[in-house]
Amino acid sequence: MTEAIYLEVTEMAETAHKAKRRVSVSGMLKHLGVSRSGYHAWLKRVPSNTEKRREAVKAKIQDIYDESKQNYGAPKITRELRKSGEIISERTVGKYMKQMGIKAQWVKPWTITTKDSDFSSELKNILDEQFNPERPNAVWCSDITYIYDRRICLSDQYHGLIFQKNHCLDTFQNIGGILHD
Hints:
Layout: H1 2-18, H2 25-32, H3 36-44, H4 49-67, H5 74-83, H6 90-100, H7 119-122, E1 140-142, E2 151-156, E3 161-166, H8 176-179
C-alpha cells in the first residue's frame, strides 16, 4: 500500500517538474499520511537478490508463455523452467502468473458435427426391411438415443419384447433364457 503511495507521489513530482511547476513533496506525503523518511529510504532502496530473482523468473515465465502462444499454464511452464535448471514450485509459478495477469487458454476439443458425404454409401441394409423374422433370435434391434442414461434396451423382433438392462453391467443377463431357445 505504501509503495503505491510512494510511486504516485514520485509520478506527480516528475510530472510537475516537467511542467516547470513547484510541488511540495513533503506536503503531499503529509497529506497522504506517509513519513518523509520512509519515502526517501524507498527512493534510495536497491532491489534485493530475492526481488531480482523474482523479476528474472517472471521474465522467463513471460517468454515461455509467449513461445507457447499463450497456451501453457503453470504446470507446463514449471516443467520448462525446471528443464532450464530453475528450482521453483508450480504454486510459485501460478502465483507469479496471477500477479502478471496471464493464464493459459483452454482450447475446447473439436468434435465432428457434420455427416460424412460417403456415410450413406457405407451402410448396408442386411434386413432388407423384413422386420418380422420366422424364428426367434434371428433379428435383434436396439435403440440409440443421444441422452446418456446408462441403460441398454434390446428387442427381439420375433417376440416383440423389449429387454432393458440398467448400468450396462451384464447386458444379456435378463435375456439369457431366450438366447438359448
